[in-house]
Amino acid sequence: KGYASPALSDTYARAHELSRQIGEVAEIFPLLNGMWSFYLVRAKYEESRELGEKMLGLAESAESPVALIQANRAMGVTLLYTGELGSGLAHMEKAVDLYDPARHRAFAYRLNGLDLGVSVRSFAAWGAWLAGWPAQALRRNDEMHAMARSLDHPYNSAWALTFSTWVHQMRREIARTREQAEAAIALAEEHRFEL
What we know:
It is built from ten helices and no strands. By secondary structure, the chain is mainly α.
């Protein structure tokens, strides 16, 4: 039903309350990430920023590379959405630098099947374009596609195609935009990706 489904708010709030009793970063972090997504897509940027900051603090104290990637992605995306392009892109680039396919690829299946490397590169491409760096945007876009192809995983491929449509649309590449959009739609329909 998507990241902004009203049913998620109550579910995440209850799960977060229960997780406080456990207190383990590994248990709390996915909940914070889910709540961050929920607030972000509902344009509740103050809440998503607070959660991003909390995630960064937890990730730094736990010294968890995967958590640091997720936390930098959360902060980066939130900052990009609120127009803080320099800071947002810095967080995205940090997440890109931290990602190691050999060590972090297995975590994709804990994140709705989305690989962190694909995710952070998609937002890094978008952020680079918005910041006025079209060559960097295209490079990150190409890296994202290569990474998605190497996974041979339909959801990651659909994600990459979807983000790629935005990059090509902003570059005013009409034929490439249409091609990427049609491929994303076909893949989503084939695998029943409602989102």
